[in-house]
Each structure stands twice: as C-alpha cells, then as structure tokens.
C-alpha cells in the first residue's frame, strides 16, 4: 500500500489551541480508482503513545485534492510537544507504519543537480543518533545539526546527477533511509516528424545521456497534447512517438512537450508531412518468370495509402561480387521486370522504395534471392601462336561463370584449309576437355587456314569463335620499338587502320622464353589498350599489335619493354680483364646477356680507388669514368699511378646501377719492366753459356781434334835417337801443353816407355808416331791434376774465358821435334 | 562453486532415462543457488550502501512449525520445500513488478538479465520438485503472491530497496536449503535402489 500523504504541513493555531494539518495525495493514490481514507494519529512525542485519532475519507472524485484536518488540543499548545502521523488506508491496508525505527525525510525528492537539500533523521525515543550518510558523497564532509531530542538534520549539496536508482541517504546504518534524485529538467533536442502511412505522425527526438536519472525517466512526453505511452528507446538514447492524425498537404507545427518534476520543455517541428513520407519496406517480395536473362519481381504494400502514391524503387542486384542498381517508378509501384541478367547466376536482390516527388527517405530494405536459367556459353576468345616447327597452338580463354552459363563439358577445335584450285579442302577436329584450353595443329604454312573453336555445356554449343591464319611469309621484318611500362601495365596506342574490319588484337609474351603469352581483343574504332595481365617486373616483354582484317590478324607493330624495370642483379658483368697502357688502365668485360637484363642498359660506369691509401697517409681518391654507349665493353682510367687499385664496373639503367663486378690490380713502374726484361734475357744468356761450357768441357778432345788436330811428328830412325842419347843430353823442353789431358811427364819414364809405346803404333801399320793416346798426347803418368794444366796455360778471366774461348793447342807438339817427352822409342 | 556447476551441468547433460528425478532436482537447486548468489552480488554492487549489511527481521518465507514432525518423511520434506519455493517465486514476481514500475519500464542491464534467469531456474526447479510429490497434479507452480502486501509498512524507493534486498537474501537461503534437502533425499533414494 503505497498511497499516502505528501507535503504534510502542520500548522499550530495557538489562539484556538488547535493544530491544522494539510496534505496532498501522492501519485500512488491516483492509481486507486476507489474511495480510500487517511488515518491521522496524534502522538506524544516523548513516548510516541497515541493521544487522539482521526479519519479523513477521500471519495473517488476527490482523489488528487488537498485534504485538511484540525485537532483541538486539550492542553495549550505550548505545554506539550506532539507528533502527527498521517497514513493512507485502502481496504484495511495501511501506508505509513508507526515510527518505530529511524526515519529519514524527505523521501523520493526530485531536485535539480546543484541543489542543496536538507535531510532530517528522526530517531525513536530511546535510540541514540549515530550518523547520517549520503551514498556517493561519503568523501564530502557534512555537518549534522540537532533539531530536537530526536531530530537531526544534514544539508547536502547535490552537485552531480543521481544514478538511475537514486542517491541514498541513510541514518544509523543502512537499514533506514530515503532516496533522492538529482537530475535535470528535460533536455530533449532534434525533434523531427514524418509520416509512414499518411495516416499518422511519427516524431523522433534525442535526449542527453547524462541526464538519465529517475527524474528524467519519469519525464512525461506529449505529442500534440496526447501522452506518448511508449516513447523511449533507452539503449540508443533516441525517442519516438506515434499518433494517428489526419495528414494534410500543408505545413503545420508538430509540437512535443517533455515534462518532469523539474521542468517542462516544448519542441516544435514545422513541416508538410505529405512531403516527408518514409515508406515501410515492401512486403512479400517474390521473384517469378525467371529466364536466362530476365526475371520478374513483385511485392505488396502494408498500407493502401501507397496505392495512389508515385513511388520510386531502387533494386540492387548483387552477383559474383558485382552490384548493379536499377531504378523503377510508378504510381503504387509493386513489381519490376529485371532485364540484362546473366544466365545461370545467383542473384541477391535488395529493394528500397521512396516517393518519386519530394523524396524524403528510402524505406527499410527487403531482400530476396533467385537464380537465372542456364544458356549456351558465350563465344570464346581465341588466339593462335605459331611455333618454330610449323606447329600452331590454338588457345582460348577459359570462360568465367558469367560467360559459361553452366558447366563446360568440352571444347571442339576445328581447322580447315579452304580449297584453292585443285587442292582439296582439309578439315581436322579435336575435342578438348576442361580444364584444357589449347590444342596443337599442324598447319601448312603455304596455305591459308580457318580455325574455329566452340564450347559446349548442358544447354548446347556456343557460337564458333573463328580466326583466319594467312599463308606464312618468312622473312618479314618488323622494326622493334621500345615501350615503357606505366602504372603496372603497358599503355598502348596505335594509328587507326582503315582496313581493320574486325578491330585489333594485342598480344604479349616474354621476349626470351618464346612461348604463347596473353592477348587482348580491341573492338573496331578503338586504337588504344592498357594491358596489365600476366606482366612480371624485370621481365622484358615483346608486345605486338595486330590489325584484324577479315578475321585474320596481321602484325602492325612490335615493341619491347619492361612493365617495370628492376635492378640488375650483382655480378652479371663477367670476364673482367685489364691492361696497363702507359699511365692508363683499360678494363674490359663481357656484356650482360639480354635475357639476364631486368632493365635496359643505358651505359656503363667504372669506379676505381687506390687500396691502402689511408694507411700510407695518402688521399684515398674515388674516381669514375662513364660511357653512355650500351654496347660498350671497355673503359679506360687515365693517369693511374703506381699502386694497388680496386676497379668496379656497373651497368647504368633507369632504376640505377646494377650487375656490378669488381677486380683488384696493381700498377707497377715502367723501368722495372725493362730491368726485369734485361735481367731475364741476361739470365737466359748466362744459362746458355754455362750449358755450352759444360758440353765443351766434356767433349774437348773431340773438339780439339777437330779444331786443333795434332801435327804429325817426323819419323826418326832409332840410330838417330840413340845418337842423341849418347851425347848425354837429354833435352827436355818441357813445355806445358794446353791440353787438359797433357801432363808433365817424367822424362826418364818417357824414355823407358818409349819402346812400349810404339808397339801399338807399329802393329797398326801406321808410320811411327808417338802413342798419343786418346787425346793425342802421350799418356804415361798423370802426375798433376788436370786443373793445373788449364791454369797454367791461360791467363784469361775464368769467368769470361771459360765461356767464351777454347784452349789453344799445346805448342810443344809442333815446336820441338826433339822433345823426347812425347817421342816413343822406336823398336828396331 | 565452479566444481558444483560442472557437476550440476554433467548431471543435467545426462540422457533423461539415466538421470533420476531427484538427481535432476539437485542439479537445478545447485544452479539456482549459484545464480541467486550472483544476483545478490549484482544488487549489492548497484546499491553500494548495502555492502556488508545484514537486514533486520526474520525470514519472509517460513515453514509452519506445525507441519514439521519429529521425523518428516521424504514426501513431506519435498512438499514443504515445494511450498517454500513457490512463495519465493511469488516474492520474485512481485519484486520484478515493483522494479519495473519504479524504473518506468524494463532495463536491459546485467542485474535485470540475471533476475530473469533466476526466475526461469526457480520455475524449472518447481516443476522438478512437483514430479517428486505423491500427487503432482495438485501442486501449483505459479506465483502465489498477489503483490498487495505493504513493503514492511514503509513507502518510498528506499524501503523498496531494502525489501528487494531481503527478498534476494530469502531466495539465496531457500535455494541453499533446497540443494541440501534434495541432495539428502537423492542419496537416500540411491541407497534404497542399491539395496
């Protein structure tokens, strides 16, 4: 039972010794649709015992009025202190109970944020007051003052809005207290009204979130003076109210009143709502009469008011990631014929509608899906590639779902050579199954051929795509120009050709791999194309433009280029070698093979620097020389001093220097070379002389025999010889010979051995000659080493003469015939 | 608590023929107890002044001392429990009405969602305990509170808050009592089956 008094005012009338009570019904009493009463008790404040009692009956028609009650005190009012208690009673249910525990007042007060509110706590007799607290204000210091023996008061400045459940004020613990709501007057904004069905007005407005307290949630909204019972949409802080009203085609004010206990706010939107029709979404959207390339859509409207409305509907068709929007208009529009559809495709449909005139907003969307019926495939996109072995590759692009109109079962490739004179027409056909998209054909290059390709699905075969292959004329040379890629592709344009009856074709393939690449057909009248498919940066492409004349492609121009030039990888320049020419160093290299070039070479640059210059305290100068000749294979560095250098060569391209390689070389002084040459030559000569000397030494006897043959000695009788001996002279003219084997021979032995020595000579039948032995000299004894003979006979420098001269013949052989040293004794 | 949830969920997930009526009721009571505790916690967070406060006064829902014999049988215990739970449902029903009236409509916060959850679980538990009664058809499972009693003789939002707090404590108490009582009954019934 929550019905009870509020704003109870107790007024003493001292002159009449009476107390007048006045109070109002609280809002809960307004819900009681019946008679109820108030019990009024007069209590002695000291012990709270009842002194008197009264009843005030409130008839049904008096609910909400102010009530009065007077009590006549038996004692003068100054003598006793009394407490008055007023409780509502309805069907034996009492509202306020006897104050047996602490009470906090006011209860459920609604105040504006920033207000100062004084709360009081009345403790029952015998109970000691401890404290009063205010939730969420516990950190603030509050002063409590005592009003009387049981009543204490505290003033709080409510500087912030209360939470949704209110701010709690408690006394002597959490058991007893009251709630207060600090909020704001209505702060609603952005009122906008429209009509959805031309029979009601719908207004929207917004409220500020931070005013969301109980005070504001008890805000009463009225639109056009009528209460909005379900106005709120609290999650989005947006409100909406709808009232049935006749919508006239004229401007008027649409007024919203927002009221709470803290204030009232009025918002107005002035508009002609016939120009603000926000249609409902179409209902029961269905598709029908679906064919391969068209379908019908139909829907219903939820209100008959739309039947006379000029409606515009926007239909979005989404399939395979593509969206196509079509617009339809009409009075009471409720259907649309969709055309230009693709066979065998799933479509998602979205329909939004609005008024054609004075368009306000699109309606909510309605969705549907359908699938078109299949059809034969579209004609294929065909191309030919002639290989070097007279084979021709027939290619076609695999049709997309929007082109195949169903699953492709097979491809049929036919080529024929129309008869010319006595030659027979030859036809050949092959069937290729997916995923294959090419066929090889042996086409006689001396004849013209017609190639046709068709695709087949469950609905039939496509129209043939044909291409004419002209007789091959070898030796055709087409100038190759350069093309530069831009924006990830090649932007081509060419002069129009008057004979291009079937347009143009552009074909491109990597220049150095020589295989079928990609192509693009260009319709007649168009002389430009931008190709981007299957192009890789750093790869040189050959791009050819063909004109199509009577179905036959004929080469118009050929270009080469990179869709994007990239840096040439390092060390592509090979075979670095150098030569020193005077004070210059010339470095040569082997050019980068074209298939390894990832950009066009525009020239070369060579860097060189001296090694170890810093350590030697020299300036490490970095120099370079360049050439803009892409065919260059050498560069010369001028004025290179003696020392060690690093030379690096790189190719110049539009994207920078690349392909670089380096060598290290040492430049030596020029005289050093000469010295080296002389030294080498001299060394060679010395070696030759040494070898010659050795050979001569070993074969001296033979040489001497050849060069200095011995003079034969005269033949002497023994008597003469004996005569010489009898004279007792033994003249021995020992003269040393030059022979390396000629020794100083002891004379006596010579004599003694003379006879023996001649025996051999006699036996040989030769005239008597001393036994010269192997080398021409008499050999009996070799008393001295051979070296001495050489030493005594020559005075020349050993180092020179040993290499340059031969020993003179021994003079003793020829000079003294009486020299008995070498004379053999003749046997008689 | 998490282990109880797991055990309760495991029992509830068993195929029906294998799961006994008392076993299912035990599992439901345990879940209800857990959710009542969560609901109380959410309310304390919203009304911070209630933190660590124990309200005065006795139980709102109490069993008549005359109905409790020296050794009440299983059916009697289940019947008393069913009656208490039905009173709890009535209190929760009135609580919801008053809060909706106070807030001028349904809020969509965590507390409101859990309040709905507790109500559904309590209704489900009442259906389970009714099955255990000797004459299930005569047992009611709807709220029995007309929601016309005074709120402790006081008016105002503060008094409603205190009353709400007492009702939530009452729900927690009886959910705990239900899980204990049904567990004992379930254990006894399983021992009887084994014998």
Automatic annotation (TrEMBL), chain A:
<dbReference type="InterPro" id="IPR036116">
    <property type="entry name" value="FN3_sf"/>
</dbReference>
<keyword id="KW-1015">Disulfide bond</keyword>
<dbReference type="InterPro" id="IPR003529">
    <property type="entry name" value="Hematopoietin_rcpt_Gp130_CS"/>
</dbReference>
<dbReference type="Pfam" id="PF21177">
    <property type="entry name" value="LIF-R_Ig-like"/>
</dbReference>
<dbReference type="InterPro" id="IPR048497">
    <property type="entry name" value="LIF-R-like_Ig-like"/>
</dbReference>
<dbReference type="Pfam" id="PF25552">
    <property type="entry name" value="LIFR_D4"/>
</dbReference>
<feature type="domain" description="Fibronectin type-III">
    <location>
        <begin position="376"/>
        <end position="475"/>
    </location>
</feature>
<feature type="transmembrane region" description="Helical">
    <location>
        <begin position="675"/>
        <end position="697"/>
    </location>
</feature>
<dbReference type="Pfam" id="PF17971">
    <property type="entry name" value="LIFR_D2"/>
</dbReference>
<keyword id="KW-0677">Repeat</keyword>
<keyword id="KW-0675">Receptor</keyword>
<keyword id="KW-1133">Transmembrane helix</keyword>
<dbReference type="InterPro" id="IPR003961">
    <property type="entry name" value="FN3_dom"/>
</dbReference>
<keyword id="KW-0812">Transmembrane</keyword>
<protein>
    <submittedName>
        <fullName>Leukemia inhibitory factor receptor</fullName>
    </submittedName>
</protein>
<dbReference type="InterPro" id="IPR052672">
    <property type="entry name" value="Type1_Cytokine_Rcpt_Type2"/>
</dbReference>
<dbReference type="InterPro" id="IPR013783">
    <property type="entry name" value="Ig-like_fold"/>
</dbReference>
<dbReference type="GO" id="GO:0004896">
    <property type="term" value="F:cytokine receptor activity"/>
</dbReference>
<keyword id="KW-0325">Glycoprotein</keyword>
<comment type="similarity">
    <text>Belongs to the type I cytokine receptor family. Type 2 subfamily.</text>
</comment>
<keyword id="KW-0732">Signal</keyword>
<keyword id="KW-0472">Membrane</keyword>
TrEMBL record, chain B:
<protein>
    <recommendedName>
        <fullName>Ciliary neurotrophic factor</fullName>
    </recommendedName>
</protein>
<dbReference type="GO" id="GO:0043524">
    <property type="term" value="P:negative regulation of neuron apoptotic process"/>
</dbReference>
<dbReference type="InterPro" id="IPR009079">
    <property type="entry name" value="4_helix_cytokine-like_core"/>
</dbReference>
<dbReference type="InterPro" id="IPR000151">
    <property type="entry name" value="Ciliary_neurotrophic_fac_CNTF"/>
</dbReference>
<dbReference type="GO" id="GO:0005127">
    <property type="term" value="F:ciliary neurotrophic factor receptor binding"/>
</dbReference>
<dbReference type="GO" id="GO:0070120">
    <property type="term" value="P:ciliary neurotrophic factor-mediated signaling pathway"/>
</dbReference>
<feature type="region of interest" description="Disordered">
    <location>
        <begin position="1"/>
        <end position="20"/>
    </location>
</feature>
């Amino acid at each position: 039972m929550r019905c009870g008094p509020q704003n109870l005012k107790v007024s003493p009338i001292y002159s009449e010794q009476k107390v007048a009570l006045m109070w109002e019904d609280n809002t809960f009493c307004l819900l009681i649709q019946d008679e109820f009463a108030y019990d009024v008790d007069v209590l002695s404040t000291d012990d709270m015992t009842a002194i008197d009692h009264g009843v005030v009956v409130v008839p049904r028609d008096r609910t909400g009025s102010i009530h009065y009650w007077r009590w006549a005190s038996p004692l003068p009012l100054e003598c006793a202190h009394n407490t008055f208690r007023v409780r509502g009673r309805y069907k034996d249910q009492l509202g306020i109970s006897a104050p047996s525990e602490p009470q906090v007042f006011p209860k459920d007060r609604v105040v504006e944020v920033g207000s100062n509110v004084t709360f009081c706590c009345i403790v029952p007799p015998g109970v000691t007051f401890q404290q009063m607290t205010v939730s969420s204000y516990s950190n603030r210091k509050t002063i409590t003052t005592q009003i009387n023996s049981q009543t204490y008061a505290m003033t709080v400045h409510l500087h912030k809005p209360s939470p949704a459940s209110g701010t709690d004020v408690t006394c002597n613990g959490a058991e007893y207290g009251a709630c207060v709501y600090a909020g704001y007057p209505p702060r609603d904004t952005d009122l906008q009204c429209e009509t959805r069905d031309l029979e009601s007005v719908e207004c929207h407005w917004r409220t500020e979130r931070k005013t969301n307290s109980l005070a504001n949630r008890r805000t009463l909204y009225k639109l056009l003076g009528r209460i909005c019972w379900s106005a709120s949409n609290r999650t989005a802080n947006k409100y909406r109210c709808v009232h049935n009203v006749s919508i006239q085609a004229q401007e008027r004010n649409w007024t919203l009143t927002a009221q709470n206990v803290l204030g009232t706010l009025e918002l107005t939107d002035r508009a002609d709502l016939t120009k603000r029709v926000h249609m409902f979404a179409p209902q029961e959207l269905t598709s029908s009469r679906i064919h391969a390339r068209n379908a019908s859509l139909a829907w219903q409207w939820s209100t008959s008011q739309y039947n006379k409305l000029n409606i515009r509907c926007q239909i979005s068709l989404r399939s395979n990631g593509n969206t196509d929007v079509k617009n339809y208009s009409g009075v009471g529009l409720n259907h649309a014929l969709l055309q230009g559809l693709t066979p065998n495709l799933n479509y998602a449909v979205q329909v939004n509608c609005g008024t054609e005139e004075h368009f306000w907003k699109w309606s909510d969307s309605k969705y549907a899906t359908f699938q078109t019926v299949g059809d034969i495939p579209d004609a294929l996109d065909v191309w030919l590639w002639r290989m070097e072995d007279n084979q021709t590759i027939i290619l076609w692009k695999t049709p997309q779902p929007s082109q195949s109109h169903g699953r492709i079962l097979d491809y049929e490739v036919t080529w024929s050579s129309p008869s010319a004179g006595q030659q027979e027409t030859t036809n050949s056909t092959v069937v290729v199954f997916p995923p294959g998209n090419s066929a090889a054909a042996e086409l006689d290059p001396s004849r013209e051929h017609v190639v046709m390709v068709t695709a087949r699905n469950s609905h039939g075969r496509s129209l043939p795509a044909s291409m004419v292959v002209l007789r091959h004329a070898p030796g055709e040379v087409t100038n190759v120009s350069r093309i530069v890629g831009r924006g990830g592709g090649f932007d081509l344009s060419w002069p129009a050709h008057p004979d291009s009856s079937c347009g143009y074709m552009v074909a491109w393939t990597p220049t150095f791999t020589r295989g079928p690449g990609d192509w693009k057909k260009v319709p007649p009248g168009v002389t430009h194309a931008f190709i981007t498919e299957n192009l890789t940066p750093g790869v040189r492409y050959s791009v050819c433009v063909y004109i199509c004349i009577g179905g036959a492609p004929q080469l118009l121009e050929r270009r080469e280029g990179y869709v994007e030039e990239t840096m040439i990888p390092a060390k592509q320049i090979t075979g670095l070698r150098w030569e020193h020419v005077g004070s210059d160093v010339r470095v040569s290299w082997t050019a980068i093979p074209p298939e390894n070039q990832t950009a066009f070479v525009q020239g070369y640059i060579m860097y060189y620097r001296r090694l170890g210059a810093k350590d030697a305290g020299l300036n490490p100068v970095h120099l370079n020389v360049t050439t803009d000749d892409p065919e260059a294979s050498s560069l010369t560095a001028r004025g290179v001093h003696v020392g060690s250098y690093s030379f690096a060569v790189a190719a110049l391209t539009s994207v920078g220097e690349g392909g670089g390689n380096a060598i290290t070389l040492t430049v030596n002084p020029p005289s050093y070379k000469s010295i080296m040459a002389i030294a080498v030559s001299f060394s060679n000569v010395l070696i030759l002389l040494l070898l010659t000397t050795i050979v001569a030494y070993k074969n001296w006897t033979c040489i001497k025999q050849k060069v200095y043959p011995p003079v034969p000695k005269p033949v002497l009788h023994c008597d003469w010889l004996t005569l010489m001996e009898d004279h007792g002279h033994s003249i021995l003219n020992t003269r040393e010979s030059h022979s390396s084997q000629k020794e100083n021979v002891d004379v006596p032995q010579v004599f003694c051995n003379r006879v023996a020595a001649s025996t051999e000579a006699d036996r040989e039948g030769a005239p008597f000659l001393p036994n010269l032995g192997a080398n021409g000299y008499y050999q009996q004894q070799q008393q001295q080493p051979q070296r001495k003979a050489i030493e005594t006979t020559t005075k020349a420098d050993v180092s020179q003469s040993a290499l340059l001269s031969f020993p003179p013949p021994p003079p003793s052989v020829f000079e003294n015939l009486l020299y008995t040293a070498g004379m053999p004794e003749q046997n008689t | 608590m998490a282990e109880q949830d797991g055990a309760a969920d495991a029992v509830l997930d068993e195929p029906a023929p294998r799961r006994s009526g008392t076993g299912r009721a035990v599992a439901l009571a345990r879940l209800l107890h857990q959710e009542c505790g969560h609901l109380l916690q959410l309310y304390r967070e919203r009304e911070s002044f209630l933190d660590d406060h124990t309200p005065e006064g006795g139980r709102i829902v109490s069993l008549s001392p005359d109905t409790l014999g020296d050794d009440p049988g299983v059916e009697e215990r289940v019947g008393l429990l069913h009656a208490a739970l039905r009173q709890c449902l009535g209190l929760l029903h009135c609580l919801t009405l008053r809060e909706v009236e106070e807030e001028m409509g349904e809020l969509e916060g965590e507390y409101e969602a859990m309040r709905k959850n507790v109500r559904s679980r309590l209704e489900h538990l009442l259906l389970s305990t009714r099955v255990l009664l000797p004459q299930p058809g005569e047992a009611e499972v709807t709220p029995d509170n007309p929601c016309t009693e005074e709120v402790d003789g006081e008016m105002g939002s503060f008094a409603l808050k205190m009353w709400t707090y007492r009702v939530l404590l009452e729900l927690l108490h009886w959910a705990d009592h239900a899980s204990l009582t049904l567990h004992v009954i379930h254990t006894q019934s399983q021992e009887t089956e084994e014998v």
